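step 4 of 6: structure.
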Amino acid sequence: MAALDRVKVLVLGDSGVGKSSLVHLLCQNQVLGNPSWTVGCSVDVRIHDYKEGTPEEKTYYIELWDVGGSVGSATSVKSTRAVFYNSLNGIILVHDLTNKKSSQNLYRWSLEALNRDVAPMGVLVTNGDYDREQFADNQIPLLVIGTKLDQIPETKRNEVLTRTAFLAEDFNAEEINLDCTNPRYLAAGSSNAVKLSRFFDKVIEKRYFLRDGNQV
Amino acid sequence: TQMLSASSLLQVLFFGFGWLFFMRKLFKDYEVRQYVVQVIFSVTFAFSCTMFELIIFEILGVLNSSSRYFHWKLNLCVILLILVFMVPFYIGYFVVSNIRLLHRQKLLFACVLWLTFMYFFWKLGDPFPILSPKHGILSIEQLISRVGVIGVTLMALLSGFGAVNCPYTYMSYFLRNVTDADILALERRLLQTMDMIVSKKKRIAVAHRTMFQRGEVHNKPTGFWGMIKSVTTSVAGSENLSLIQQEVDALEELSRQLFLETADLHATKERIEYSKTFQGKYFNFLGYFFSIYCVWKIFMATINIVFDRVGKTDPVTRGIEITVNYLGIQFDVKFWSQHISFILVGIIIVTSIRGLLITLTK
């Protein structure tokens, strides 16, 4: 197979939300049997068909960079993490549906990643506080994924899903809620799989295609 | 009654302080699932602080003697109850509820764990002359003495660890010189390793996809018969893949090491910058004195063990004696030296708890 073009997508979130399980599910189509603490960054690759089913179909590599750690880490760890944020094309924000703090920390995660990437089209922030307008202007596509859906009892589900809908709106992003130990949530043809496909298409578009549709 | 209300107010204050400490410091980035944990922590903290406060009151002579005695008895009973019964039981309960196998009969297994703990706890008192005919077997003295044994051992361990760790952490003599170029070089190596991992994973992904498209489903050999089968009928492609997978595993281990080294370098650089500020210089200065104190303690402890003698006076008392004799200041040596040693050991222990936990979980 000829060498394919690539895009880089970061997977960010608090410790223990299920980023490694999610990345494993996305790339190997299998459930991760023995999740362990991620030290540093673990990368995996997914092959994606851009505009599948149309004549312009093209295959791309999507590199999923799963950066471990917590948002309150020491500055030295944050500076080391920042080396992975270079030239990123998309961000997947992962939070735990059973843990409200992990959802709140997503704002800080996204600021940490976006601040680093001060490219001409990047987001410039002055005081580090969250401001919705920054995200409206943001050129890097975001996707919000909530994990451990199976651990939420049926009675609380609506309340949790409303809360996450607001969260996704704040980021101007789509959201998917799933359970990483069950592959049926991302089964081909399901609405989650469609959203995922759309997100990856958007990432590839922003990277390789200018607004008028010509290839870079 | 005035005394009663004053001390209960203090107790409530300590409870609130423990609660806040838990929320703000310990569980800053996490969510508390079970409020029981927080309540027990705050209650234990409150009662421990109250005991400490009662000792200070005893030394200073505040409040009247009978109410102090009453409070002391009450506190002692409650703390023993918490330490010996509640905390071990809840630790066992939460450990058990995290293991999927034992999830069904949580209470039963928690009780089993607690009984095991009580057995070892009781056995702890065997080498010590605790059982005396005056007190009987099921008395408070039995429990306190065992708790005391554990407590003193822990304090000694922490103090020893702190004595060695303190000089290393505080003194800037031990700081290697780290330049920006070093950090950049290491970061570049890290990114190169990541790139190598990515390219290898791409090859594996492409191979999987072509095999999937060609209809060969690549199953990992599972179970005994699967392994036997894979020995005889091995596909050439899969052998190549497992080789690449091994290379990937090695590279991932390398990338983790590089990441930790880079984080270390960043931390060292920060410490160097901090040590150049005014605050840093002040702490460095204090650190030298502290380190000398720690080294002296280690030296004296070794001599005491080797020559099997009991230390008469510790360096703080000697130091104060010398100062008093030299400067001629009126000083109640015994009183102050006891307190100052107490405070110094307390500082060493408190600062070394964190250091010990970090070193153990590295």
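step 5 of 6: annotate
 - The longest helix of chain A spans residues 191-208.
 - The longest strand of chain A covers residues 41-50.
step 6 of 6: archive
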